[in-house]
Amino acid sequence: MSAAGPADAFSSGSSLRHPIPTTLVLGPSAALREAAISYTLQDPATPRDDGAAVILEGLSDGNPLLENSDKLLISRIAPGCLCCAGNLVMRVTLNRLLRQRPARLFIGVADTAHLDQLRSWLSSTPYDQLLALTPDLHS
User: Fold this and answer.
1) How far is CA 10 from CA 2, 14, 71, 81, in A?
2) Which pLDDT score, from 0 to 100, does residue 114 have?
3) For 136, left (φ over 0), alpha (ψ -120 to 50), or beta?
4) H/E element, 117
Protein backbone atom coordinates (compact mmCIF):
# COMPACT_ATOMS: atom_id res chain seq x y z
CA MET A 1 0.00 0.00 0.00
CA SER A 2 2.97 2.30 0.12
CA ALA A 3 3.96 4.71 -2.59
CA ALA A 4 7.58 3.81 -2.96
CA GLY A 5 9.79 6.37 -4.59
CA PRO A 6 11.72 9.48 -3.77
CA ALA A 7 10.07 11.70 -1.19
CA ASP A 8 10.52 14.70 -3.46
CA ALA A 9 9.69 12.95 -6.74
CA PHE A 10 7.40 15.77 -7.83
CA SER A 11 8.45 19.18 -6.67
CA SER A 12 6.74 21.46 -9.20
CA GLY A 13 3.92 22.51 -6.91
CA SER A 14 1.68 23.21 -9.90
CA SER A 15 -1.08 21.03 -8.45
CA LEU A 16 -1.32 23.40 -5.50
CA ARG A 17 -2.88 25.96 -7.83
CA HIS A 18 -4.63 23.67 -10.31
CA PRO A 19 -6.64 20.53 -9.68
CA ILE A 20 -4.88 17.32 -10.71
CA PRO A 21 -6.43 15.63 -13.75
CA THR A 22 -7.72 12.34 -12.35
CA THR A 23 -8.78 9.42 -14.50
CA LEU A 24 -10.71 6.39 -13.28
CA VAL A 25 -9.50 3.30 -15.14
CA LEU A 26 -12.07 0.54 -15.56
CA GLY A 27 -11.64 -3.00 -16.79
CA PRO A 28 -12.20 -6.66 -15.99
CA SER A 29 -8.75 -7.35 -14.50
CA ALA A 30 -5.92 -5.57 -12.70
CA ALA A 31 -3.55 -6.52 -15.55
CA LEU A 32 -5.79 -4.93 -18.19
CA ARG A 33 -6.27 -1.75 -16.14
CA GLU A 34 -2.51 -1.51 -15.64
CA ALA A 35 -1.93 -2.06 -19.37
CA ALA A 36 -4.37 0.74 -20.23
CA ILE A 37 -2.53 3.13 -17.90
CA SER A 38 0.85 2.07 -19.28
CA TYR A 39 -0.35 2.63 -22.85
CA THR A 40 -1.70 6.08 -21.95
CA LEU A 41 1.56 7.07 -20.26
CA GLN A 42 3.50 6.02 -23.37
CA ASP A 43 1.24 8.02 -25.69
CA PRO A 44 3.20 10.96 -27.20
CA ALA A 45 0.24 13.24 -26.39
CA THR A 46 0.69 12.55 -22.66
CA PRO A 47 2.94 15.15 -20.99
CA ARG A 48 6.17 13.53 -19.77
CA ASP A 49 7.85 16.37 -17.92
CA ASP A 50 5.62 16.15 -14.86
CA GLY A 51 5.13 13.11 -12.68
CA ALA A 52 2.12 10.87 -12.54
CA ALA A 53 0.69 8.81 -9.72
CA VAL A 54 -1.27 5.58 -9.99
CA ILE A 55 -3.49 3.81 -7.50
CA LEU A 56 -4.14 0.26 -8.66
CA GLU A 57 -6.92 -1.66 -6.96
CA GLY A 58 -5.99 -5.31 -7.19
CA LEU A 59 -2.71 -7.12 -6.98
CA SER A 60 -0.31 -7.57 -9.84
CA ASP A 61 -0.34 -10.89 -11.67
CA GLY A 62 3.43 -11.04 -11.17
CA ASN A 63 4.28 -9.25 -14.41
CA PRO A 64 3.76 -5.56 -13.63
CA LEU A 65 3.94 -3.18 -16.58
CA LEU A 66 4.39 -0.12 -14.38
CA GLU A 67 7.25 0.47 -11.97
CA ASN A 68 8.00 3.29 -9.56
CA SER A 69 10.41 5.90 -10.87
CA ASP A 70 11.25 9.58 -10.48
CA LYS A 71 8.25 10.38 -12.71
CA LEU A 72 5.81 7.66 -11.62
CA LEU A 73 4.53 6.74 -8.17
CA ILE A 74 2.50 3.55 -7.89
CA SER A 75 0.39 2.33 -4.98
CA ARG A 76 -1.41 -0.98 -4.98
CA ILE A 77 -4.36 -1.63 -2.71
CA ALA A 78 -6.33 -4.79 -2.12
CA PRO A 79 -9.60 -5.11 -4.03
CA GLY A 80 -12.72 -3.94 -2.26
CA CYS A 81 -15.30 -1.27 -2.74
CA LEU A 82 -13.33 2.00 -2.66
CA CYS A 83 -16.31 4.01 -1.45
CA CYS A 84 -17.47 1.54 1.23
CA ALA A 85 -15.24 -1.07 2.89
CA GLY A 86 -12.05 0.22 1.23
CA ASN A 87 -12.72 3.90 1.86
CA LEU A 88 -10.16 4.33 4.65
CA VAL A 89 -7.41 2.55 2.69
CA MET A 90 -8.26 4.59 -0.40
CA ARG A 91 -8.30 7.86 1.53
CA VAL A 92 -4.91 7.21 3.17
CA THR A 93 -3.34 6.09 -0.11
CA LEU A 94 -4.75 9.05 -2.02
CA ASN A 95 -3.64 11.55 0.62
CA ARG A 96 -0.09 10.14 0.58
CA LEU A 97 0.13 10.46 -3.18
CA LEU A 98 -1.37 13.95 -3.22
CA ARG A 99 1.40 15.15 -0.90
CA GLN A 100 3.81 14.42 -3.76
CA ARG A 101 1.82 16.80 -6.02
CA PRO A 102 1.66 14.65 -9.17
CA ALA A 103 0.68 16.34 -12.41
CA ARG A 104 -1.69 13.48 -13.24
CA LEU A 105 -3.47 10.73 -11.29
CA PHE A 106 -4.90 7.39 -12.43
CA ILE A 107 -7.10 5.23 -10.21
CA GLY A 108 -7.61 1.64 -11.38
CA VAL A 109 -11.02 0.49 -10.14
CA ALA A 110 -11.80 -3.23 -9.79
CA ASP A 111 -15.47 -3.02 -8.82
CA THR A 112 -17.68 -0.60 -10.71
CA ALA A 113 -20.84 -1.35 -8.69
CA HIS A 114 -20.51 1.91 -6.74
CA LEU A 115 -18.72 3.97 -9.38
CA ASP A 116 -21.13 6.91 -9.00
CA GLN A 117 -20.50 7.00 -5.23
CA LEU A 118 -16.73 6.92 -5.82
CA ARG A 119 -17.00 9.82 -8.27
CA SER A 120 -19.13 11.72 -5.78
CA TRP A 121 -16.59 11.09 -3.00
CA LEU A 122 -13.70 12.27 -5.22
CA SER A 123 -15.73 15.38 -6.14
CA SER A 124 -16.54 16.38 -2.56
CA THR A 125 -14.53 18.31 0.04
CA PRO A 126 -11.51 18.36 0.24
CA TYR A 127 -10.88 16.53 -3.03
CA ASP A 128 -13.05 18.89 -5.08
CA GLN A 129 -10.27 21.49 -4.76
CA LEU A 130 -7.47 19.01 -5.44
CA LEU A 131 -8.78 16.76 -8.22
CA ALA A 132 -10.39 17.28 -11.61
CA LEU A 133 -12.12 14.12 -12.80
CA THR A 134 -11.53 13.40 -16.49
CA PRO A 135 -13.38 10.92 -18.72
CA ASP A 136 -12.96 7.30 -17.65
CA LEU A 137 -10.41 5.10 -19.36
CA HIS A 138 -11.70 1.64 -20.31
CA SER A 139 -9.33 -1.28 -20.74
Assistant:
1) 16, 10, 7, 29
2) 81
3) beta
4) helix 115-122
